[in-house]
Specification:
The complex is a heterodimer of chains A (189) and B (1040). With 189 residues, chain A is an all-alpha fold. In chain A, 45% of the residues lie in helices and 1% in strands. Chain B has 1040 residues and is of the alpha/beta class. Helices cover 29% and strands 18% of the residues of chain B. In chain B, a hairpin with a 2-residue loop joins strand 5 and strand 6. In chain B, helix 6 runs parallel beside helix 28. The relative contact order of chain B is 0.12. Classes of the chains: A mainly alpha (189), B alpha/beta (1040). At the A-B interface, helix 4, strand 1 and helix 6 of A face strand 1 and helix 33 of B.
């Protein structure tokens, strides 16, 4: 059977090309998805504060520093004065604590790098979720084991909705938890 | 838009049957009344002319300085973005030292006092992360009781006004240069010293002084510099009423009125619901007599007035009367009761009887042209409601009218309504005409060494007849203390910036029996000082005496020494002081001064009838920009006038008949001349005005207010005349002439007209406004429900199921006076931008709630119906069905949600909304208005962080303050309570001085709103469309 070049192109080459293109798009989409959503983002902080040491080893309660977490929409990043509650005495000679003390004395805020971020039009409330019994770790991962904090889960709308729809499954450690609201103004206004 | 055809004015005025509430033909403007072609056309288009065709490419490509900088920044940031990692999420900046009591994201509330006007109402300021974002009334305050007017609410924008003065300035040639406080203080102190030692007067000019501690500062100043003299003024004062009271009763001040006990209120040229006295309190007390549950105590409001005022809009019976005939009216009524009916002991007083000779209601009806039947009915009401009626004459009427009114109230037994529990307090009486004239004479003859303008603007405010501004040039040292530049500051040598209310300490005493405290809620944004602290520094004679705590310490020590001991409390001073600051109010025992009996001699000796030829000019204060002090506040400039709905301007309002006589029409320029003072301004034809009267509002035409307020409107202050035959504000004998040329006034009047031309024959049955009379309601409580039955189609939709909370609102139209406090409250809460006059002209105003004003009857004697209109949150919402991207959809608690981040700006929803309550961002209005004026720091600080700031191309609308609803729900659930929806207050409801708005959970049978939804007077707007709105309106009852 004689195949013309055209026939060959149409029957074999084009489908293969389309398949390869689609397959690579699909693979790239899924492979790059976590990176796109910021999973694994682990910036270098101005002071290498270790959650592993403070929250893990010394078991300081999260809310000792993140004062808003039970009371406000924002968990809040602690003021330098909160650090100085201990570090006026503790480890005064460490170069990083000297750096911290300098920020504090000069009344300059510490420019921490933001790790987790929701868009401005999302009105997420920490206090509501935390008071419902949801553990910090359910969204932020095991921060108490991280020497340098990194983002471990996705903070997209589909990730929010996944948990809101399947709360009993996702948050099985809370007895009788009900699915969360899925209508727009619950988060957007 | 085509000019309003004059032939319509010349046409015979059609007469529509009065007293027929059913089937009224409501009209929103004269154009609509006469079926003007432009009006009919306007109805057919959603958007006005120019909305779609003014797209000028050049306006977009013009490279302004800001656009250039914006582009520069944008390209720089693009370049920078390329260098950094795409993952970067920026920085998160915490506090350095954690402030006590501040948790990011949680609001704090502080009690303070508003000084937007002389009423000094108690306020509760909401702050977020240390910055004030909302002003509400303080519940504990005995006068304003948790409510605050539109001006007070909008005053928060003045704090963040980018054009506030930031540093002291010294005049240097024709411009100003910044100097330090030390230099300014030293120079002023030495000027004060040399003036005092040289025997030259130091004139301190201020507006109302109502702080006892500030009074003490002035005393200290006068003690150090012996030649200090204090002057005070207000653009409009109740000085005539008070001086009449003093003449009638020997001493004291005109008492407060128990409006809530009145069954008949006769207002003579008084706008007590609009801008006279404490309107927040008066509105609350007045509407408490308009309760549809207590028909027996339902009051009757009769208004005799020339212009159409906010009070007149609400009248049951409104009679047009020229101001100079008010005296004859009172005398005729006196004649009726004293001479004819002899119902008073004054019938035996020969002098009084003689004085009343020659007046009679019959004669008055003839001269004034008022229907004798109306006057007779008022007389019969007065006779019926003895001891429960009040005749109240306006601020602007002359003394003899007030004295005659005092006698009339004595005769009618209305003195029973004079409140005995409290009296207005006074620290410093307003300066009289003679005092001003003497000051100007001394200034001209070089006998005044220093003039200090203490938060006042006399160059703009005082009648030009005084010659104050020219005399000021002869004064060697002129110092102005003000928050922003003014007409007075530009002619001063020294301009010292002062703190805003929200940055200040003070105490206020406006009435007997309580003090209202003011505390700062934010540290001064700039290098400003509190005005009392500046004066106190001068009073010590050393510029080094100043410190941040100077006046605070002074205030506390005065309280500790003078007030605290007299209160004999068990707690220490500090505890007392902190609890007083927490409450904002300190009550104490104080008996108001008593007064003597009525002195009939005063009445007999001051009588004189007033006659006038020509036109009468009636000046009044602007409802929203006040005396001009709020001119640089875009929210207030853009708030539609309660009656005319005009924004960004003042005008000469005349009656349709007078307009015909003058051959003028809307926007035609006229020249008004009173005793040599001239002003050219546009005309507005106002239905319901008295003929031969020109009503003009003051507070406009400022030249040095700032970017927003400069050259807005026309400065009618120049027409004031203290030597006029009547009063400073009502000027008979004026000349008015058409000058040719026009000036375009912009009103929201014809905007958002609810489309009724397609179903013209059905317009009576559209049921936008339903109303009746008290009598009708008494005889048939279901009359509204019977009307409603005609308009109930069957739905093709399945009913939405609401389990749990379902939000709903009810608005009692009996209570709404149209004061517009709700509109500003909504603006502040929901980050509504200022769009500017050019954008309002093409119907792009952004306010989420508007107050529709409908006329019915004839242009000569119109009746007005008001209706606050906001998103009706329909169950079967037409907007939701048409959104192609589901940016507006239905929530399980009954809201029509609006998701800005999803909206792509098709505007289908707005086209499909029968209530026309959706607003579209045709521009990024913050960017578009005045070259980004409200994006300049620190103006964006006023934004509510709980509400998204919308950008260009996004639709928006009222969402029942969803941020508050969600917060309340989360708070309840967080505390483990079941959420019932009780206790949630939305912004418009919070602000309404009349408590006309009820909000809550319709599914909770015990809630107020659920009951009102079942009320006999309840109805929905445009019910025949069956959109199932969730805003219930309670029909207005007129007590005719």
């Amino acid at each position: 059977m004689n195949r013309t070049l055209l026939e060959y192109t149409l029957r074999v080459r084009v489908p293969i090309l389309i398949f390869v293109a689609l397959a690579s798009l699909t693979v790239t989409y899924y492979v790059s998805r976590p990176a796109r959503e910021g999973i694994g983002y682990q910036p270098t902080q101005p002071i290498p504060f270790s959650h592993k040491l403070h929250a893990g080893l010394m078991k300081i309660d999260c809310a000792y520093c993140h004062i808003g977490v039970y009371r406000s929409r924002y968990a809040a990043i602690p003021a330098a004065s909160t650090c100085m509650n201990c570090h006026t005495i503790a480890k005064k000679t460490s170069p990083y604590i000297i750096k911290l003390t300098k920020y504090y004395d000069e009344s300059k805020p510490i420019p921490w790098k933001r790790v987790h971020r929701l868009p401005d039009y999302v009105y997420f409330s920490h206090s509501f979720h935390v008071n419902a019994g949801i553990k910090c770790q359910s969204c932020h991962g095991n921060v108490q084991d991280m020497a340098v904090v990194k983002q471990v889960s996705s903070f997209t709308m589909s990730a929010c909705l996944d948990c809101h729809r399947n709360a009993p499954k996702r948050l099985s450690y809370i007895p009788n938890i009900k699915p969360g609201p899925t209508y727009c103004v619950a988060c957007h206004r | 838009m085509a000019d309003f055809n004059k032939e319509h004015l010349l046409k015979e005025l059609p007469v529509i049957e009065q007293n027929e509430t059913k089937g009224q033909h409501y009209w929103k403007s004269l154009k609509q009344f006469y079926n003007d072609p432009s009006s009919i056309e306007a109805k057919a288009h959603e958007f006005m002319e120019g909305v779609v065709d003014d797209f000028k490419l050049s306006s977009l490509t013009d490279m302004s300085r800001r656009k250039f900088l914006a582009l520069l920044t944008a390209s720089a940031s693009f370049a920078a973005a390329g260098c950094s990692t795409y993952e970067s999420k920026g920085e998160v900046i915490p506090y350095n030292k954690e402030p006590v009591g501040v948790i990011p994201g949680v609001p704090n509330y502080y009690a303070s006092t508003c000084t937007g006007c002389s009423n000094a109402c108690g306020i509760l300021v909401t702050t977020r992360e240390g910055r004030p974002i909302k002003i509400n009334g303080n519940d504990e305050h005995p006068v304003n009781k948790g409510k605050i007017c539109a001006r007070g609410q909008a005053s928060i924008l003045n704090l963040y006004d980018p054009e506030r003065l930031r540093e002291p300035m010294k005049k240097d040639g024709s411009s100003f240069k910044n100097v330090s406080w030390q230099i300014a203080d030293a120079a002023v102190i030495s000027a004060l010293r040399s003036a005092a030692s040289g025997g030259k007067e130091i004139a301190v000019v201020m507006k109302t002084l109502n702080s006892p501690t500030a009074k003490k500062v002035f005393d200290d100043l006068a003690a150090r510099y012996k030649t200090v003299k204090l002057y005070s003024y207000e653009l409009f004062t109740d000085a005539n009423r008070d001086s009449a009271w003093k003449k009638s009763y020997g001493r004291g001040k005109f008492p407060l009125i128990a409006w809530d006990k009145a069954k008949l209120i006769v207002s003579l040229e008084s706008d007590f619901l609009g801008n006279e006295g404490n309107t927040v309190e008066q509105t609350r007390l007045y509407v408490s007599t308009r309760n549809n549950k207590e028909l027996k105590n339902f009051s009757r409001l009769v208004v005799f007035e020339a212009g159409m005022s906010l009070t007149g809009m609400n009248a049951d019976l409104r009679l047009r009367l020229a101001p100079e005939l008010q005296y004859d009216l009172v005398m005729s009524l006196l004649n009726e009761f004293v001479v004819k009916r002899q119902t008073s002991r004054y019938a035996l007083d020969r002098n009084v009887v003689n004085a009343l000779q020659g007046y009679s209601i019959g004669k008055f009806a003839q001269t004034s042209g008022i229907d004798p039947k109306s006057i007779e009915s008022i007389v019969s009401y007065m006779a019926r409601y003895k001891n429960a009626s009040i005749v109240y004459a306006g601020d602007r009427l002359p003394e003899q009218v007030h004295i005659a009114v005092n006698l009339l109230n004595e005769v009618l037994g209305s003195t029973a309504l004079y409140r005995k529990d409290r009296l207005r307090a006074e620290m410093l009486p307003y300066s009289t005409k003679e005092e001003w004239e003497a000051l100007v004479t001394r200034m001209n003859s070089g006998k005044v060494g220093v003039v200090v303008h203490c938060d006042s603007n006399p160059v703009y405010h005082l009648p030009s007849g005084y010659g104050y501004s020219s005399a000021l040039q002869k004064v060697p040292t002129v110092v102005t203390l003000d928050q922003s530049a003014s007409e007075t500051s530009v002619v001063s040598q020294w301009v010292l910036p002062i703190n805003h209310d929200l940055e200040s300490w003070n105490d206020f005493k406006t009435r007997t029996g309580f003090y209202s405290l003011q505390q700062p809620v934010i540290y001064p944004l700039y290098v400003t000082r509190q005005k009392e602290a500046i004066l106190l520094t001068w009073a010590t004679g050393k510029e080094s005496a100043y410190n941040d705590d100077l006046y605070h310490g002074y205030l506390m020590s005065r309280w500790e020494k003078e007030i605290y001991p007299s209160m004999k409390l068990a707690v220490g001073f500090k505890e007392f002081w902190y609890s007083a600051l927490h409450d904002g109010i300190v009550n104490f025992d104080e008996k108001p001064e008593s007064h003597d009996g009525f002195n009939a001699e005063a009445f007999v000796s001051t009588r004189s009838s007033m006659k006038a030829g020509g036109y009468t000019v009636a000046l009044s204060e602007s409802y929203f920009v006040g005396d001009g002090g709020f001119a640089n506040n875009g929210w207030l400039q853009e708030l539609p006038h309660p009656v005319t709905k005009v924004v960004w301007d003042n005008y000469a309002a005349v009656s349709p008949t007078t307009a015909k006589e003058l051959n003028v029409d809307f926007n035609d320029l006229v020249e008004v001349e009173v005793r040599g003072n001239k002003l050219k301004l546009p005309t507005l034809v106002q239905p319901g005005m008295a003929d031969k009267v020109v009503a003009i509002e003051l507070g406009y035409g400022r030249t040095n207010a700032g970017t927003v307020g400069n050259d807005v409107g026309f400065n009618a202050n120049v027409l004031q005349d203290a030597n006029g035959s009547f009063t400073q504000w009502i000027l008979p004998g004026a000349k008015v002439s058409k000058t040719g040329g026009t000036f375009e006034l912009v009103a929201t009047m014809e905007h958002h007209m609810i489309d009724d031309s397609l179903v013209k024959d059905m317009q009576f049955n559209r049921g936008i406004i339903r109303e009746g009379t008290v009598e009708e309601y008494q005889s048939d409580p279901d009359f509204i429900q019977k009307e409603r039955e005609d308009s109930k189609p069957t739905s093709i939709y399945k009913d939405f199921e609401y389990n749990g909370v379902k939000w709903a609102m009810a608005i009692d139209l009996n209570k709404c006076t149209g004061c517009s406090a709700c509109v500003i409250s909504c603006n502040v809460e929901n980050n509504i931008p200022v769009v500017g006059k050019d954008q309002v002209k093409v119907s792009r105003e952004m306010q989420w709630i508007r107050i529709d004003r409908y006329y019915s009857g004839t242009p000569v004697e119109p009746r007005i119906s008001l209706q606050p209109m906001l998103c009706q949150q329909c169950d079967d919402a037409p907007c939701e069905n048409v959104c192609p991207v589901a940016a507006t959809s239905h929530s399980p608690d009954g809201l029509n949600m609006m998701v800005y981040n999803r909206c792509i700006g098709t505007r289908y929803c707005s086209n499909n909304c029968p209530f026309e309550v959706r607003r579209f961002n045709f521009f990024n209005f913050r960017h578009h208005y005045e070259d980004s004026y409200y994006l300049e720091q620190p103006a964006p600080m006023v934004s509510n962080p709980e509400v998204t700031v919308r950008t260009r191309g996004v639709m928006e609308k009222c969402t029942f303050c969803v941020q508050r609803l969600v917060q309340a729900k989360q708070d309840a659930l967080q505390e483990g309570k079941e959420f019932t929806g009780s206790g949630v207050v939305v912004a418009c409801q919070e602000a309404c001085p009349a408590n006309a708005i009820t909000f809550g959970n319709a599914n909770d049978p015990g809630s107020g709103v659920a009951k009102l939804r079942e009320h006999e007077l309840g109805y929905y707007v445009l019910e025949q469309l069956d959109t199932k709105p969730n805003v219930t309106y309670l029909a207005k009852l007129r007590n005719i």
